[in-house]
């Protein structure tokens, strides 16, 4: 049975007589899938438009909080973006990097089970390879979209070198919401081989904007297709549908190393991103 919420959540909703509400609220249903990763089986959620395809597709990478909310359903932000992208004709695959490794949220964990530069990068390519085996997916139109820790993964995924084992068509484009740009910038040899759009808030005190601006400027100096939008007064998670701005503490990595950062919706930045992302992916 397909699902957008978890199977257990959907079953409880059906027992309560709310299946119709669940479908109408999210506008699409998601299918639990599994596919081969590097040394493990990856689990995820796949959403597709109606019809036979072939569809363009998006591999969507969650942040350090993970793919699901406390209720076991796809988190609100993921569900919101999935609904929008599916409505515009994209298939969307969310690989569960943490759950597939029996790990929970990693925002407050320093010694993480997955690294953007390695395990999560491998997961992104494995998800692309899986989509490219499906007959309803256009194998040359698979893009990458991600948030925070997943956004950092995007930076490593679109770098100059692909894994030796990836022989399929490359990602078409990539979008990174508020990635951590300091480490790729510090290494000094980062380059982008595909078009990349970075969206970040000027007030972000979790993953600050300045390193991303410098990274984009460096790439542009080499003639690489990297663009960046920095939203005034916007914090981390600015694209969330409804998250009051608040301070989160005890985080493992923040801009000043103090462990506290602000997160929350910025309506103007969110509205711009909702318009900007589909245009970028389509052109």
Task: Walk me through what this model shows.
The chain is an alpha/beta fold and 283 residues long. It has a single domain (31-282), classed as Alpha/Beta hydrolase fold, catalytic domain (Rossmann fold, 3-Layer(aba) Sandwich). Helix content is 30%, strand content 21%. The chain has 8 helices and 10 strands. The chain has helices spanning 7-15, 19-26, 76-87, 119-131, 149-157, 182-187, 209-221, 267-282, and strands at 30-36, 41-47, 55-61, 91-95, 137-147, 174-177, 196-201, 226-231, 246-248, 261-263. The chain has an 8-stranded mixed sheet, with helices on both faces. Helix 4 packs across helix 5. The chain is globular, with a radius of gyration of 18 Å. The two termini are 34 Å apart.
Going by CATH, the architecture would be 3-Layer(aba) Sandwich
How confident overall, as mean pLDDT? 90
- Gyration radius (Cα, Å) is 18 Å
Helix content: 25-40%
- Looking at the structure, the CATH topology is Rossmann fold
Short account of what is shown:
With 283 residues, the protein is an alpha/beta fold. Helices cover 30% and strands 21% of the residues.
């Amino acid at each position: 049975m397909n699902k957008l919420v978890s199977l257990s959540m959907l079953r409880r909703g059906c027992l309560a007589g709310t299946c119709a509400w669940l479908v109408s609220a999210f506008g699409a249903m998601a299918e639990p899938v599994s596919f081969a990763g590097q040394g493990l089986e990856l689990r995820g959620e796949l959403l597709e438009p109606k019809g036979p395809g072939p569809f363009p597709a998006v591999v969507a990478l969650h942040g350090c909080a993970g793919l699901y909310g406390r209720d076991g359903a796809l988190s609100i932000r993921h569900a919101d973006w999935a609904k929008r992208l599916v409505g515009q004709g994209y298939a969307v695959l969310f690989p569960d990097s943490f759950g597939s490794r029996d790990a929970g949220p990693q925002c407050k964990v320093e010694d993480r089970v997955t690294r953007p530069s390695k395990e999560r990068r491998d997961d992104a390519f494995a998800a692309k390879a899986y989509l490219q085996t499906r007959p309803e997916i256009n194998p040359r139109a698979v893009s990458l979209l991600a948030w925070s820790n997943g956004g950092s993964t995007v930076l490593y995924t679109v770098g100059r070198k692909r894994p030796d084992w990836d022989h399929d068509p490359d990602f078409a484009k990539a979008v990174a919401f508020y990635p951590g740009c300091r480490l790729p910038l510090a290494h000094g040899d980062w380059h982008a081989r595909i078009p990349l759009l970075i969206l970040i808030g000027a007030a972000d005190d979790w993953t600050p904007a300045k390193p991303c601006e410098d990274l984009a400027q460096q790439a542009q100096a080499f003639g690489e297709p990297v663009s960046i939008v920095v939203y005034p007064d916007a914090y981390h998670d600015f694209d969330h549908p409804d998250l009051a701005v608040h301070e989160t503490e005890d985080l493992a990595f923040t801009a000043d190393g103090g462990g506290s950062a602000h997160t929350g919706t910025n309506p103007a930045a969110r509205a711009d991103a909702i318009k900007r992302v589909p245009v970028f992916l389509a052109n």
